[in-house]
Every structure is written in structure tokens, then in C-alpha cells.
Give the backbone structure.
Amino acid sequence: MGSPQDHAYHLLNEYANGFMVSQVLFASCELGVFDVLAEAREALDAAAVVARLGTSSRGTQLLLDTCASLKLLKVEVRGGKVFYQNTELSSTYLARGSPTSQRNMLLYMARTTYRCWGHLAEAVREGKNQYLQAFGVPSEELFSAIYRSEAERLRFMRGLQEVWSVAGRRVLAAFDLSQFPVICDLGGDFFQDPLPEADLYILARVLHDWTDERCSQLLQRIQRTCRPGGGLLVVESLLAEDGRGPVTTQLYSLNMLVQTEGQERTPAQYRTLLASAGFHGFQVKKTGAIYDAILARN
Ligand SMILES: C[S@@+](CC[C@H](N)C(=O)[O-])C[C@H]1O[C@@H](n2cnc3c(N)ncnc32)[C@H](O)[C@@H]1O
């Protein structure tokens, strides 16, 4: 163990180099490293990976060994030769064919989120998202900035789906929803279109995109359509009541700053929004995972 100064310097370097770790992950997904290793069904040496990916020997060797140190790959030495294989993490979450693959979400983060984060200081200065600075796309109409091409829209949608392949079960098990025969998961243009009739509405990762004012408009629309005794399930990553933690949710909140008009909120902030739209019987379930659930009644 080193001195407290050593520890502080170590922590500083870990934070400063964090983006390099993200890029190793993103580039490996982009190039298909985890896919060729999953398809090979046996450990491959660097030359075999190079041949399959059509990449440089030098770059591939460095990337594979770094992945191994980050526990994204396993290394086996046989007859003085090094062979690489996916770890459980990469075969479960990174290989394209896995039912819980997060590949599209990582590609979306690499190509969109990361670029908006490159303008975090400007976002903090201006208090608004950075699509214009990152992509030259005006952000006045958030929908067209977020879905600025069909390929982008599809990647984002697939990525959102991938997150639910891992996190969905826990969120939906948070409350007994069997009392609600017809459930409507709201998406699309819910600010304009008539809302379908349902016993329970779900707003998952929607309110965090919007200002309090826009959230209130949407919640009032839902409250007017929802039958008395009906419910609204809000799925979001909840901040601690003092707003200072968990750090992942705070980072998501900054992500809402660089990418949307919203922020992550505390349970009390959601309660205020829901109550002022006419909902009551507010219940919060922290799932222990990234996303939590709030059930309110009309
Ligand atoms: C972050 S996605 C969440 C999707 C889904 N509920 C989930 O959790 O995977 C935000 C949703 O808001 C909808 N939406 C409605 N109006 C929007 C707007 N003006 N800009 C962006 N998204 C909008 C999108 O269609 C999309 O379904």
C-alpha cells in the first residue's frame, strides 16, 4: 500500500484514463473482435484474428492484450503461442449473437453519446444538449436531433431493447401488475397523438428526457386518459434523496444534459410531478439495479 498521495494520484489517473477504457471496449465491438472469437468456438491467436478482421497486426495485438488485461478476453499460452478467447462477460454481453448482447447500445454510445460528452464543459456552461456542437444538428426539436438518421434511430432502438434484455425482468417484477389487465407502454409521439385506453400506463426512460414543464404536460395527458383506479408505472434510474449519488445515476443525469432537455430525479421530485398531475398512492421500489420503479394511481 502506498501513501495517501499515491492513492490520490492513482485515482486521478484512473479517472483521466477512463475514456481510453471505453474506447477499447467500443473499438473492439466496432471491429467485431468478440464476434469472431464467438464464431470460432476455439481460442484464436492474434494472426488468426488479424486474418478474420482484416486489421493491422500491430494494432490488433495491442488491442487483444489490452482487452485481456481488462478481463474482456482470456489468454491461454500453448507451446509458446498466445491464444485469445471471450470471457463470460464478453460472450454474454458483447458477442453479437448472445440474447443479452449490448453491442448496439455500445455502438450507439461510441458514435453518439461519446461525441456529445466531448462537449460536456459547453453543456454545463450553456445548460443545454450538444447535438449542434457534436453533429451540426440543431437541437430545438429534440426528436429530429436524437433520430437524425434512420440508421441512428434503429441503432438507438435496438440498444434500448438490449438494456431491457438484462434489466427488464427486475423492473417489471417490482410491483404486482396482475391487477391491470390492459397495459400500455407509451412511446412514439405521446405529446400529440391520442393515448390508447389502458388500465396501466408505463413511462420507461421517458420523463428523464424532459424538463419539469414538459413532464407535467405529458403526465396531465395520461391522467386525463387513465381511468379512476388505473395506474402509471414510471421506470427510471433514481437519484438519492439528496441528489448526491449513486454515481452511475449522476453520470446518467449529466448524460441527459448533453443529450436531452432533462435530468435524472429523486423519488421526491417524481412524487411532486406525479401529484401535481393528479396521481396519488405513490410507491417506490429500488431494484438494486440501474433502473427503479415508481407506481402511482389515478
Ligand atoms: C429513451 S426512449 C425510451 C423508450 C422505451 N420506453 C425504453 O425504455 O426503452 C424515449 C421515448 O420517447 C419517445 N418520444 C416522444 N416524443 C419524443 C421527442 N420529441 N423526442 C424524443 N423522444 C420522444 C420516443 O419515441 C421513445 O419511445
The domain at 103-297 is CATH 3.40.50.150 (Rossmann fold). The pocket of S-adenosylmethionine is lined by residues 142-143, 146, 160, 187-191, 204-206, 209 (CB under 6 Å). The beta strands are 44-45, 73-78, 81-86, 183-185, 200-204, 231-236, 280-285, 292-297. The chain has a mean pLDDT of 96.
